[in-house]
Structures are given as C-alpha cells and as structure tokens.
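Regression test case RT-17, inverse folding.

Input:
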C-alpha cells in the first residue's frame, strides 16, 4: 500500500536523528565564535548584495537562509530569547547545539530519546534552582543597572562610544519610564540617525519623528504647544457616486473653484479656531490647506507613520481624531516644545515635555550605516536587559560563572536521578561547560586550562572568564562589573532545553518536494 506521493522523501530512525542533530549543531557553530566581549563579527550578504555586519545571535540566524526544519528550530530558540528577555540569544543557541551534540553521543550508546528528554528536564530544573541561589543580594539600583547594560553591550559594535557612557543613557531612559509596577519598555523608543559619531548619541525626553513640515514657511520651533493628532485627509471631499458636472460658463467655474477654496480654508480655520499650534496628520494635507495653516502660524506635518502618530498621541495626551470639525480641548495634547532640526539632509522633529513625560527616545548616532545598525541592536538589547533586571529584581554574575556553577550543581545531584536519565543529566552539565570554554577560547586563553582553573576557583569562591584589556583571566565577574539579569539565564536554559529535546524526539521526517 502506497500512502505517500512519488515525490515524497522519508528519513527514519537513526538517520533522521543524525540529520536533524547535525543541522542543529551547524547552526549553533555559526554563532559560537560571536560569544562574549571578544567575540568575532559575521558578515552576511544576501542575494541582492545587501551587507549586514553583526555579532548579534538572533540577527545572524534570521539573516541566514536556513531551510532545514530542525535548524529552523534553533533559529526559533534565538527569536524566543530575544522576544522574552532581549539578550542571551547566542548563549541559548550555543547551549542548544551542545545539548544536541551530547544527545548524539547518548543515542550512539543506545540511550532512548525519551530517557534523554527525562534527564535533560531534570538537569534543567536543577539549573533553574541554582540560578536563583546565585542571585546577588545587592539592591538593583542605578549603578547595578549600568553594569548590566554595559555587560550587554561590551563586545558589540558601539563605534567610538564607550559602553559605560551608553549604559548611563540606557539606564536613564529606562528609569524615566519606570513606575511602581516596573519599567514600560515600549515607552522607550530608539531612533537611528547617521551623520555623526556614536559618541553623539543622546537621550530625548519625548518623541523623535522622521518627518518635516508641510511647508518651509511654517514655524520650526513652537513652545508650550497645543497638539492635534488627525487621521483624515485635509483635501476636497470626493463623491462616492460616479457623477459628472457640466459647466457651461466662466461664472459657474469660478463658483465651483470658490466653493472648493472655501471648503479648504474652512479646514484651516477650524484648526486655528481650536487653538492648535501643531497639527500631526497621518494622511495628506492639500497644498492650499497647508498655505492657509502657514498663514495662521500652525506647524503641520502630513503622512506621518501610524507608529509615530500613536507615539505622539500617547506622549502628548492627545486623542486621534477623524475630523477637524468640533475639536474640543479634551482632544488636544500638549508639549513643552516642538522643534524641527536638520541633520545632514534630513529634518527630524522633536516633541518634548509632553503630558506623558515618561515617553523618551534614544537618538542613536553612527558614522556609517553598518555602525549605526549594530549600535541600534546593541542599545536595544541593553534596554531590554535593564528593563528585565528592574522588573525581575534579580541579577547574577556573568562571564560564565553561572554556567560553571550550574554544571557543578547538576553533577552533585545527578546521583539522585534514577536510571539512564542520570547519564543524560551529566551530559547536560558537560554541555554547559562549553559556554565558559567558548568564552575562554574567544579571549585567546587555552580553553581546557581555563575550564580547569575556572572549576577550581568556583570550588572556593566565585569566578568567571573576565576580559581585562586584550586578554582574558579567571577572576570574580562581580568585581569587574560583569553582571547579567537572572531572567536571561532562566530563559536560555528553558528555550535551549525545549528545542534540543524536541529535535531528539523526532525519528521520522517526511518531506514533499
């Protein structure tokens, strides 16, 4: 009996497992050398010749043209890590790859996939408990958050800007949008603008929009502004029916033009009479309406993106309205300052001091497009981890210290695990060792010697692979300010384990061409 089509391909048993594991390991190896402050960058070139230079794990994996379904699972690991906590994507991907490599050895020793899954799950739970025990007792204050941000950005493309200087801006931005319930990460926007060194990056307490005035003769700086946010065209109305008008005289044509002019002027007068100083429209504004608004001294913007419109409305406290008719004071927002500044050949609009003072923007500068893109990614990760650290309230030592401690804890408790699952738990510990070993290798240290020294140092204290200048050494990461949010470590363990066990359990691959 034939169930599958002639063009279907089927791989079963050990062949399917070997193929899937090899694909997962290949993806993990692609990002392994980017791990840590001395990690290397990858240059990715797509079919159109567009170049991306980065050492951000999730960016690398998403830019790669990955077709193998098992390999795509590791891409999903990085994407989930990025979505949940904003950092640790390379750690999660490398760990997933190592778990697959250890599972391959276990399968070769006839350990059943279900047993491997059981052992990995037990080891993961031990790891979560170990992370909680490693949380630092220090209060999560601004100084600690700055170290978290700097740790996240160290080794990433920050141009000529010192990671510590950028960390100050990141923490200031997150604290600006924090309240008793935590940090509203969505209230921190990042706007990238080329044309200056990365050291010129600044924090704007408000919104930065990539838009310019409808007319050059409009004011470019308005203080104490009343802001109207509009989602409607300011143009002549169009009939919904397909009709024709017959004009038989000049007087009729003049009357039609006068009526049209009157309608357009009425729009501008309605805006003026409502006390509007700044008009932000998501749709177009007729040139004649714009001229009338300029005469009235109104600063107007048209075709503003929906995301910017929503952000401006939120920041100023304005209501997005669908018509300029019957606008009342409750619909208007307010801003201390609305100004337009030129950056190179582009105009940027700054709306600062709105009714919602917790909306801020990091204006990221970069000398080239490649530097700017990587800096934007680095700052985005830093914002995420600072917000997570502030919300979760827990941080742990970085530099591989946590991974070594988890591996030691798993080995100590593996004897309590029944049957062959104990072998899988011990293999899990060996997989964790690959992370500090990779950190050591990327800093130029001998990975085997570094791992031995690291284990010995953690027997009596706390140690990690810390980068000092151009070299790496075994030292206390907390003393060197290398700190990660506990949530990042928890998520890396969970997502890597889930992906690895899912791949291991697959013993039949059916693909249609």
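Golden output:
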């Amino acid at each position: 009996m034939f169930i599958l089509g002639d063009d279907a391909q089927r791989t079963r048993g050990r062949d399917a497992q070997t193929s899937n594991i090899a694909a997962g390991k290949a993806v993990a190896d692609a990002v392994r050398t980017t791990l840590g402050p001395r990690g290397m960058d990858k240059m990715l070139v797509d079919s159109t010749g567009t170049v991306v230079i980065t050492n951000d794990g999730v960016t690398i994996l998403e830019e790669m043209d990955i077709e193998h379904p098992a390999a795509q699972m590791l891409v999903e690991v990085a994407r989930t890590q990025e979505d949940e906590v904003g950092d640790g994507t390379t750690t999660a991907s490398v760990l997933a790859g190592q778990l697959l490599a250890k599972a391959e050895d276990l399968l070769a020793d006839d350990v059943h996939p279900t047993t491997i899954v059981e052992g990995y799950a037990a080891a993961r739970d031990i790891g979560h408990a170990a992370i909680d025990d490693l949380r630092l007792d220090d209060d999560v204050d601004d100084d600690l958050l700055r170290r978290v941000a700097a740790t996240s950005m160290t080794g990433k493309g920050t141009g000529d800007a010192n990671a510590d200087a950028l960390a100050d801006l990141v923490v200031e931005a997150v604290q600006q949008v924090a309240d008793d319930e935590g940090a509203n990460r969505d209230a921190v926007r990042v706007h990238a603008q080329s044309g200056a060194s990365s050291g010129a990056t600044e924090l704007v307490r408000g919104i930065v929009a990539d838009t310019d005035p409808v007319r050059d003769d409009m004011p470019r700086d308005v203080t104490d502004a009343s802001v109207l946010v509009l989602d409607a065209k300011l143009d002549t109305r169009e009939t919904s029916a397909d009709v024709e008008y017959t004009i038989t005289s000049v007087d009729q044509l003049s009357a039609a033009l006068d009526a049209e002019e009157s309608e357009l002027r009425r729009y501008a007068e309605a805006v003026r009479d409502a006390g509007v100083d700044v008009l932000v429209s998501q749709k177009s504004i007729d040139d004649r309406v714009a001229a009338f608004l300029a005469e009235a001294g109104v600063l107007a913007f048209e075709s503003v993106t929906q995301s910017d419109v929503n952000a401006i409305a939120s920041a100023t406290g304005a209501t997005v309205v669908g018509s300029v008719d019957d606008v009342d004071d409750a619909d208007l927002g307010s801003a201390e300052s609305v100004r337009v500044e030129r950056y190179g050949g582009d105009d940027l609009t700054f709306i600062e001091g709105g009714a919602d003072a917790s909306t801020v923007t990091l204006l990221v500068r970069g000398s080239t497009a490649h530097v700017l893109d990587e800096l934007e990614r680095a700052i985005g990760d830093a914002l995420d981890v600072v917000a997570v650290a502030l919300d979760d309230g827990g941080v742990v030592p970085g530099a591989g210290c946590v991974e070594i401690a988890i591996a030691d804890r798993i080995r100590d408790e593996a004897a309590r695990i029944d049957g062959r699952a104990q072998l899988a738990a011990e293999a899990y510990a060996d997989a964790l060792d690959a992370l500090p070993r990779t950190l050591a290798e990327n800093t130029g240290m001998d990975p085997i010697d570094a791992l031995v020294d690291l284990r010995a140092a953690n027997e009596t204290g706390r140690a990690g692979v810390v980068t000092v200048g151009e070299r790496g050494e075994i030292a206390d990461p907390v003393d060197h300010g290398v700190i990660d949010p506990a949530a990042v470590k928890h998520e890396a363990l969970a997502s890597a384990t889930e992906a690895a066990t899912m791949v291991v359990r697959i013993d039949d691959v059916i693909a249609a061409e």
